[in-house]
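Hi R.,

Here's the chain you asked about this morning:
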Amino acid sequence: MSDYSHADHRNDHGRRPYWGLPDPVTQAEFYADVTLKRLFAWLIDVVLIAALCVLISLLTFGIGFFLWGLIYLAVSFVYRVTTLSNASATLGMRLTAIELRTHRGERFDRTTAALHTLGYFVSMSTFVVQLISIVMMCTTPRGQSLVDMMLGTAAVNRAAGR
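And the predicted structure, written out as tokens:
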């Protein structure tokens, strides 16, 4: 069940595609500065993941540095899926007071977290797709990325809902 109490908002065709998410017009505080906060959260997460990779590489007596790309991908995937499925936010998102929610307004489960992370990896691997995703975050009413639009998810301010 959604954690957000708000009116039933329908689109032009009478459908309710995001019926559990706050309305970006009447409840704009949920989406205020979310795109900028996502950038800061991403930077924090990249630093944390890189630090974990350095630690792993040191624990393998330096061999991990030769496999940096594979270690980074593995650590990043596990980190993102674990943190998103536990609290619907990575550690960077928690520090910037945002969290991801499904179209029903619910927190992520493990499957949604894995799909979101997989979509993030695909978008990061292709410059054009990542550029489209960034433009979408800056222009859509809910600040949704391409992956968010495909899954029907959105990042919201955590403090606004408490």
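The helical segments are 34-59, 63-66, 68-87, 91-95, 110-125, 127-139, 146-151.

Let me know if you need anything else.
M.
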